Amino acid sequence: MPVADSAALAQAVADQINAGSHDAYHAFTAGAFNKANEDAVMSQQIIGVLLIFLTIMAALIGVGITSQTLRGAILSNIREFASLRALGISMGSLRWIVMELSFWAGVAGIAAALLITWLAVLAAGGAGLPLVIRPQPAAMVCAMLMVISVASGALAMGVLKHSQPADLLR
Questions:
Q1: Is 54 found in the same domain as 28?
Q2: Do residues 108 and 135 both lie within one domain?
């Protein structure tokens, strides 16, 4: 039996069961059950609140760690930034360089996350465990990684004030 026919048959059976249940119970198809379960987790159970809270905390921690890493990278190259300022490069251009560096760090982070996720899916499949990564949540995670990366670059720009051309004379 083709998959489309079995899905229609499953919906017809669920409808017949629900019609005869007089609201004592409710039958779901597999897809409807998954959707109802996700909705219940996110709206009716404490786990949904915890997931949202931990997502916000992870984003804040990610911005803090990444901005400090970018800050350290800029400070380690402060003489180069001071040389660029001595050559007449504007502070706005230097800020643009820092934002571009943070963007490319975000792209590299997304590439690493995709590789690790792909390896995890392969490992789970090799162990006989079904691991499904849905496109919408994956896209949301990638977008969040880019937001973290760009926000970190914006926070790390303050260290550029230390790139004075006079520092080259020391």
A1: no
A2: yes
State the distance between the two ends of the chain, measured CA to CA, in whole angstroms: 81
Residue 1 structural domain: 1-44
* pLDDT given at position 170: 62
Based on the fold, state whether residues 72 and 40 are members of the same structural domain: no
- What is the pTM assigned to this prediction? 0.65
Could you give the number of structural domains in the chain? Answer: 2
Tens digit of each residue's pLDDT (9 = 90 or more) over 36-68: 877 777 677 777 778 788 888 988 888 888 888
- 80-89 contact pairs (CB < 8 A, 24+): 81/160, 81/163, 82/163, 82/164, 82/165, 82/167, 82/168, 83/165, 83/168, 84/163, 85/163, 85/164, 85/165, 86/165, 86/168
pLDDT value at 21 more than 80: no
